[in-house]
């Protein structure tokens, strides 16, 4: 699906009221969380490098108390993944927005000479690939199972310990607690991605079941124009990031755009 104006985007958003959106400044080969991307992947075995995910988590949990006192409980892996994601560490989370204009902003923000893309998913249909149709919440056993599995090497034993109804084979869509103003501003929602039993990750764009996913191409030549239109619609760095740096950047953009 290709668009030519911001009006096209608004129409798509209105026609897809139950969908979530993710903007990327480049057209990627596959849609996977950062921990499953090439930097942390073993091309020889086509699998994530052994133990690297748990090493990231354990190292972060070890060092974070040296600079921050308000931290999640040591056994709340989902909240630790949120914190890691917020500060730029690779995780098995993929962030989305309920607002298509937010996704367009991130698709246009960088890489001005390359086409961007916006993915659209139906979260309820996605979850139906596992078992439960509907959008899950952070307290869901299945969501927490996938979070804990990032540091556990025996899924069957973990499933017994956590008493989950099923072991998710596909990404799970859920709404997070809005613990940070940025998440509320960006209308953040998430998918969390399990590894298959043989250690592989299934790219979300390969799950074509029931037409639950679609992609919009943002031509590079329109990126600057779309950012200008989004600014007029109130979608700016200042409104999405809610800090002094973003306020300063927005002032510069407003005066010199």
Helices and strands in order:
Elements: H1 6-15, E1 20-24, E2 41-42, E3 47-48, H2 52-63, H3 77-86, E4 93-97, H4 100-108, E5 116-121, H5 123-128, H6 141-148, H7 155-162, E6 172-174, H8 181-185, E7 188-192, E8 213-218, H9 223-232, H10 237-241, H11 244-256
Antiparallel strand pairs: 1-5, 2-3, 4-7, 5-8, 6-7
Tally of alpha and pi helices: 11
The percent of residues in helical segments reads 25-40%
Got a strand count?
8
Domain count, please report it. Answer: 1
Overview of the molecule:
The protein is α+β, with helices and mostly antiparallel strands. It has one domain. 37% of the residues lie in helices and 13% in strands. It is built from eleven helices and eight strands. The strands form three sheets. The chain has a three-stranded antiparallel beta sheet. Helix 4 packs across helix 9. The longest helix has 13 residues.
Write a short abstract of this structure:
With about 260 residues, the chain is an alpha+beta fold.
């Amino acid at each position: 699906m290709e668009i030519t104006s911001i009006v096209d985007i608004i129409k798509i958003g209105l026609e897809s009221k139950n969908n979530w959106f993710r903007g990327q400044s480049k057209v990627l080969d596959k849609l996977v969380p950062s921990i499953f991307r090439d930097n942390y992947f073993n091309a020889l075995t086509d699998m994530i490098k052994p133990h690297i995910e748990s090493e990231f988590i354990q190292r972060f949990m070890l060092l974070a108390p040296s600079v921050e006192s308000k931290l999640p409980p040591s056994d709340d892996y989902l909240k630790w993944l949120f914190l890691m994601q917020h500060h730029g560490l690779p995780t098995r989370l993929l962030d989305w927005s309920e607002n298509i204009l937010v996704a367009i902003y991130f698709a246009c923000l960088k890489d001005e000479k390359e086409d961007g893309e916006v993915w659209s998913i139906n979260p309820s249909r996605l979850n139906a690939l596992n078992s439960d149709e509907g959008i899950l919440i952070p307290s869901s056993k299945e969501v927490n199972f996938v979070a804990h599995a990032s540091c556990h090497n025996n899924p069957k034993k973990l499933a017994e310990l956590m008493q989950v109804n099923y072991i998710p084979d596909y990404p799970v869509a859920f709404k997070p607690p809005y613990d940070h103003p940025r998440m509320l501003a960006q209308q953040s929602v998430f998918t969390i991605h399990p590894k298959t039993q043989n250690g592989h990750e299934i790219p979300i764009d390969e799950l074509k079941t029931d037409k639950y996913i679609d992609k919009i191409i943002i031509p590079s030549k329109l990126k600057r124009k779309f950012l200008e239109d989004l600014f007029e619609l109130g979608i700016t760095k200042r409104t999405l990031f809610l800090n002094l740096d973003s306020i300063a950047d927005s002032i510069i953009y407003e005066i010199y755009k």
